[in-house]
Amino acid sequence: MITTMRLNNNGHHLLRKGTDEVTVISEPGKERPDFVQGAYSACAVCDEQPTYVLRDGEVHAQDPCAHPMGITTEVTLDVPSGKLIVTDDLRDVYDTDFFAGADYNTALGQAQVIQAMAALGCAFGPVGNSCPGLYRNGADTYVIASVYVDEDTDDAPALPEPDRLARICTDLWAYMLADFEDWKAKGGTPQGRMLGDHTVIDVPPGTYKITHHTGEHSFDRDADLVEFAHIERIAPFPAP
Ligand SMILES: [Zn+2]
Fold it and tell me: Are 46 and 120 within one domain?
C-alpha cells in the first residue's frame, strides 16, 4: 500500500521547508512502515536515522530529537594581543578532522568541528558561500553577517559599511578568527598568504565568546540580514 501521510518529526529536521508530507509504503496492520520516501535519511540537526511508526493515520519519528530547537554553539577565544586575524582559512596552523564525528552536513557535525577548532585556539564557523563581513556593533561586541543589497535600488543594508572591519572571502565557506600573535607563534606567516586574503583588526585584549547560529531551527540564510555569529568580550586581559 502506498499512501501520502503527514510526518510527525518529533523535533527532528527531516523535511525540506514548506512540506510536511511523505510517501509511505506499508502493509495493512503493521506498526512499522516498509519505506518512507520524501524525508532525509537522517536528521539534519542531530544526524540520527529515525525509526518510523504508523499511528492515527500519520507516520511518526519514534524517538524525539535531542536538539529540537537546533544547536547554538558557543566557544571562547583568548585574544591577549588585541590583534585578531580574520579570514576564511587558517588551517595552515589550526586544523582538525572535519569528518571525525557526526556528518559534517548536520548541525551536530558542524558544532563538533566548531568546538574542536576552538580547543586549538581558532574560532571557526560555517557560513556557506556568503562572503560575510565582520562588523562592530558595540564597544567590544561584533557580528559576522551578510547583508542583502537590492541591486536596483541599492536599498537596505541594515549594517552600515563604515562599521565593517573585515570582509571574509569564503573560498572555504567559513570564517576563522584567531589571536594574530598566537597564529604567528604557531608558524603562521603573513607574507606567505595572498594579498587581501586576511585582515588583522585591533580589538580590546580579552576573552571573547563567539555564539554561532547556523544550526538553529530559526536560522534563515535567505534573510536580508543574516547574522551568522555574535562576538562579545566576556573578560578583559589580563584577567583581574
Ligand atoms: Zn534530530
Answer: no
Domain residues for the domain of 98 are: 73-236
Q: Which whole number is the average pLDDT over 50-60?
A: 95
**pLDDT tens across 66-103, in order?**
999 999 999 999 999 999 999 999 999 999 999 999 99
Instruction: State the distance from the centre of ligand 1 to the C-alpha of 66, rounded, in angstroms.
Output: 6
Percent of the residues in the chain that have a pLDDT greater than 90, as a whole number? 79
Q: Cα separations (Å) of 6 from 60, 64, 66, 182?
A: 9, 17, 21, 52
Domain count, the chain: 2
Residue at 157 is within a domain: yes
Cα of 42 vs centre of ligand 1, distance in Å, is: 8
User: What is the 76 CA–ligand 1 centroid distance (Å)?
Assistant: 26
Q: Say how many Å lie between the CA of residue 71 and the centre of ligand 1.
A: 10
Confidence grade of residue 188 (pLDDT, cut at 50, 70, 90):
very high
Is the same domain home to 35 and 79? no
Q: Would 145 be classed as within a structural domain? A: yes
Query: Ligand 1 centroid vs 148 CA: distance in angstroms?
Result: 30
* Ligand 1 center to 14 CA (angstroms): 8
